[in-house]
Specification:
With 402 residues, this protein is α/β, with parallel strands linked by helices. Helix content is 29%, strand content 17%. The model has no long low-confidence stretch (mean pLDDT 95).
């Protein structure tokens, strides 16, 4: 019988999320031929007692298990040799700060499966925290607007017990007539954002209506990539062409920036893609946006006012377009920026349950059904002390040659 273990999170700052909530651990034991232990932790939002009360064994030593599930990168000192690990390794883009982690995984003969690389046969990601990044990020966007205007103050999401308590705060939101919110993106993050916009009761309009009509109520529009980028040569837009040759495109966001009051960034951005808006764009007297919830949070990238990440405890700052520098978030001429880069951590119980649902439904069955679509195989970065074929491009990175 296979043995699963849920490890304690060891990264600093602490992360309170887990891959499986207590009741989900029970479900795993009932559904699959496994034994399951949870490593004792003083960090996670689900307490040891909640697992014990559900009948789950809580231990200090997790080394007796075959497969170990975490969330964030495991500190090198905590890695156990010859095990299979699941966590977000943040190595597949050759991140310099995790080079030593990849080396340690190889040296310790660890089989590493990265959640980020778990995809279906069409390359679509199967698991992640993006939905809750959108949910919390959208909420924080309205928190930022309330603080900027001193018109209302929402309770911080991380101080709420759960999503239900957070959503009870939404009734405090007061927006002017004809207030306009524009968002970019169509994936998990955008879907989470839209859940909050709909919970508030805001009206959705088309991009064309957003640009051309007046409204007597607050409205929002979702932009697809063909709405906010265009070919430089004026030829018709095709999505595949954009994905294959992003350098041949430029931003077409300014018409929306001239009428929008709030911008929520939910898109995926490639470094070869055009910026959404530049620092010069933000200096334009017609640039109207004054609250930005940058959930995507690419620093000094496509959203010019995102000059640094913010934190859960200190989530907003001001960006002065004229000086291109940070200022007070309630400065009337500033853009108020929310750029927290670990948003799901603010609702760790809800985010963990959402993640655990996908883990149970989409990933765990592949341990026992022969992995017919090679979901686990494709996501395995290293095994037996070597990089797998799909990730052999990381060899020079691991060797320190690049």
């Amino acid at each position: 019988m296979m043995k699963f273990g849920i490890i304690r999170e060891g990264k600093t700052p602490p992360d309170e999320r887990v891959p499986l909530a207590p009741e989900q651990c029970v479900e795993v034991i009932e559904k699959f031929p496994v034994k399951l232990q949870v490593q004792s932790s003083k960090v996670r939002r689900f307490k040891d007692e909640e697992y014990k009360n559900a009948g789950i064994e809580v231990v200090d030593d997790i080394s007796g298990n075959d497969v170990l599930f975490g969330v964030k990168e495991v500190p090198i000192k905590d890695l156990i040799a010859d095990k299979t690990y699941f966590f977000f390794s943040h190595t597949i883009k050759k991140q310099p700060y995790n080079r030593d982690l990849l080396r340690a995984l190889l040296e310790k003969n660890i089989t590493m499966v990265d959640y980020e690389t778990l995809t279906d046969k069409n390359g679509v990601r199967l698991i992640g925290f993006g939905r809750y990044a959108g949910i919390v990020g959208c909420y924080n966007g309205f928190y930022a607007y309330g603080m900027r205007t001193h018109s209302f103050e929402l309770k911080r999401a991380y101080l709420c017990e759960d999503r239900k308590e957070m959503e009870a705060e939404l009734s405090k939101i007061k927006l002017p007539e004809n207030y306009r919110i524009v968002l970019t993106g169509s994936g998990r993050v955008a879907h989470g954002t839209i859940e909050i916009l709909e919970k508030i009761g805001l009206k959705q309009v088309s991009p064309a209506e957003f640009l051309t009509q007046e409204f007597n109520e607050p409205v929002w529009a979702q932009l697809q990539v063909n709405d906010y980028v265009k070919r430089k040569d004026g030829k018709p837009f095709t999505k595949q062409d954009f994905y294959n040759h992003p350098q041949e495109f430029e931003s077409n966001f300014m018409p929306y920036a001239k009428v929008a009051d709030m911008y929520i960034a939910c898109h995926y951005w490639d470094e070869n893609s055009p910026y959404i808006f530049t620092r010069e764009d933000a200096k334009n007297p017609d640039f109207k946006i004054r609250t930005v919830a940058d959930i995507s949070c690419d620093i000094d990238g496509p959203v010019a006012c995102t000059i640094r990440p913010s934190t859960i405890k200190d989530p907003i700052y001001g960006y002065d377009p004229q000086t291109e520098s940070e200022t007070d978030y309630d400065n009337p001429s500033a853009i108020t920026v929310m750029a927290v880069d670990n948003l799901p951590c603010e609702l760790p119980k809800d985010a963990s349950r959402d993640f655990g649902r996908e883990l149970i439904d989409k990933i765990l069955p592949n341990f026992f059904n022969g992995d017919p679509d090679k979901i686990l195989e494709r996501a395995t970065i290293c095994k037996g002390g070597k990089l797998t074929e799909c990730y052999s491009y990381l060899q020079d990175y691991a060797d320190g040659k690049e």
